[in-house]
């Protein structure tokens, strides 16, 4: 018996990093997982994984999101993972950077929740998990202006949904990681003018002396997706190795 036996789970950004680790962890615990991502080639790596079916999806495209939602009679868990990290202060953030980040990091969650929540309400049961960050309203972080703003908005969205639909059987929580060792992080480090120094800067703020792993975040995802967390809603689940202390 798995901790998620029989649960139908849909998640975004499943091609790599936290999304991929969560999709695999969900399936191992018995869930029926639909793993989506805009990156078709990377997503193919999950094909053939027991319990997982893949779908290419642009979560910023309303028509695609609504079309996917129509395919499901029931969804127990919706996990919104897709996001983008912009580097820089407000003076480094052009309008196009602001718009792109808000569209992907916040509006996509609005679209996904709007599309899937009615199915949850019809079944009087549902569980939404949103990916936020410690870099948000939790902690001010240098050179994370629009990213932190977007992730603070995710916390607000999470609490709003949790409050509005609590008595109709809906739970909504968000996960707030610190620095997680993912392909996205490694790509951002390599994109800096001095990758070696950029890595040292990331490590300097790790009070545990190491980065978090995607699998460690996935363990928290499984808990929030399971009935073990049935009394947990409207929360920010911090997993940062003490960075925000």
TrEMBL record:
One Gene Ontology cellular component annotation held by this UniProt entry: cytoplasm
Catalytic activity: (R)-3-hydroxybutanoate + NAD(+) = acetoacetate + NADH + H(+)
Keyword RNA-binding listed: no
One Pfam family here: adh_short_C2
Compartment(s) of residence: Cytoplasm
Gene Ontology BP, a term: lipid metabolic process
Name the record gives this protein: Dehydrogenase/reductase SDR family member 6
Taxonomy of the source species: Eukaryota, Metazoa, Chordata, Craniata, Vertebrata
